[in-house]
Amino acid sequence: MENILFDFISKYISLTEDEKNAILGLDLFHSVKKGTVLLKEGQKSQVSYFVLKGCIRVYYIIDGEEKTTAFYTELDALTPHCVNKAPSEYFISCVEDCILLISNADMEIEINSKFPKFEKMCRILSEELLAKQQIDFDEFKTSSPEQRYLNLLQKRPDLIQRVPQHQLASYLGIKPQSLSRLRARILEKSKE
Amino acid sequence: MENILFDFISKYISLTEDEKNAILGLDLFHSVKKGTVLLKEGQKSQVSYFVLKGCIRVYYIIDGEEKTTAFYTELDALTPHCVNKAPSEYFISCVEDCILLISNADMEIEINSKFPKFEKMCRILSEELLAKQQIDFDEFKTSSPEQRYLNLLQKRPDLIQRVPQHQLASYLGIKPQSLSRLRARILEKSKE
DNA sequence: TAAAATCGTTCACTTAAGTTAAGTAATGAG
DNA sequence: CTCATTACTTAACTTAAGTGAACGATTTTA
Fold it and tell me: Residue B165 and residue B36: Cα distance in Å, rounded?
């Protein structure tokens, strides 16, 4: 598991043994059971998550209804609302049994001040994520639910297997019934 | 104009006179006429924009149709696809006469190495933007076109005044005709 | 193991957005 | 200033998503 982390970091900066040990000394690794709620609406979160294995999900409850807005899988990082320290508007829970890195703001400040190159990695990571998310947002805006589904089928085929349909549906911005119908429609088209 | 910039920066880090002069020495300030296309599909962009005055717009052309995905107004920053150096998939143009800061990667590297605190500001800015955009994306996903319009009316009422309807419509993910209808519907409701 | 709850699909019906077309108002170029 | 273009609205029709309900098939849990 440690190697997965260091392989990931090595894409951005190179670490000395000392630096690696400093990270390992932080007690970041956690196993979390499927269904565990990591963050509830109204709670204040000071922690960041990095998925080594498994899948976590972000969702809102609006008018008693779950609205899933994101899935994070292997090597995805999730830092809830760094801006304001306002209470969370959403929930985070585990779709599967997970192995996560969980870090808090204090750890990050400590690491950043000890090893300035982390600051750089964080900036690059943020900028990368920002650009990726920008593209995702643009794709969402410029396509229909059906196109979004086909797009997801291409880009994250694993998600469609590992995540319940009704969560996928709200991730695509539609109701479960509409997803069923839309899939039937696609199947019908492909027969012709 | 310089003061608008330094007031903005001062929210994140404090600058000495030397540092301010280093920035002013970079020749960042540019006046750009309404309608100017700053970036075309297929071009490679190495520059970032920061809006001091005016409004710039990001749009795709898909099947011959403009799809607007973002508007940037006063104090908004736009850094196109820092990740890959692939050619742009979208256009950027000026909705109004603008005063922009335009910086390129070389300038940023130079400034970042001379004054490490810029690295920090960039990280904080990226993280802030990421969180803001996350929230925007979530709101978009979890609401209907009508709710999106009402939401925009609350959050960026100026946009509805300064931007053409058909650009607004595609920003909301719908056709101009649907926006007209939707507005008529809202007006009808408010009469009752 | 049996009962209850949840999940995915299907159906009929409603609502809203897409499409095509037309008309009017505003804008811009010559 | 005029003509041509573009922008916005309205309308009729089509298409697809929302809604409410029903149905097995799972999964949970008591």
Answer: 19
In the structure, how far is the CA atom of residue A151 from the C1' atom of nucleotide D23, in angstroms?
31
* Angle in degrees, CA B20, B24, B28, rounded to 5: 130
**CA distance linking residue A176 with residue A174, whole number of Å:** 7
Cα separation, A54 vs A51, whole angstroms: 7
Phi, psi (rounded to 5 degrees) for A102: -125, 120
CA distance B177 to B166: 9
- CA distance from start to end of chain B: 47
User: Cβ(A60)–Cβ(A67) under 8 Å?
Assistant: yes
Model confidence at B107, pLDDT cuts 50, 70, 90, reads confident
Residues of A in CB contact (< 8 Å) with B are: 58, 60, 62, 67, 69-70, 79, 81-83, 90, 116, 119-120, 122-123, 126-138, 140-142, 171, 173
Task: Select B2-115's CATH number: 2.60.120.10, 3.40.50.720, 3.30.720.120, 2.40.50.870.
Answer: 2.60.120.10
> Which candidate, B154, B156, B150, B148, places its Cα nearest to that of B173?
B148
A33-64 per-position pLDDT tens digit? 999 999 999 888 888 999 999 999 999 999 88
The reply to whether A164 Cβ lies less than 7 angstroms from strand C is yes
Q: What is the mean pLDDT of residues A106-123?
A: 83
Q: Provide the mean pLDDT of chain B.
A: 90
Tokens of A170: 């709200």
Q: Whose structure tokens read 């104090």?
A: B75
Facing residues of A50 across strands?
A: A77, A101
pLDDT of residue A125: 85
Domain boundaries of chain A, sorted by first residue:
2-116
**Would you mind telling me the total number of residues written for chain B in this entry?**
192
CB atoms within 10 A of CB A171: 23
Asked if residue B58 lies in contact with residue B78, where contact means CB atoms within 8 angstroms, the answer is yes
pTM for this entry? 0.90
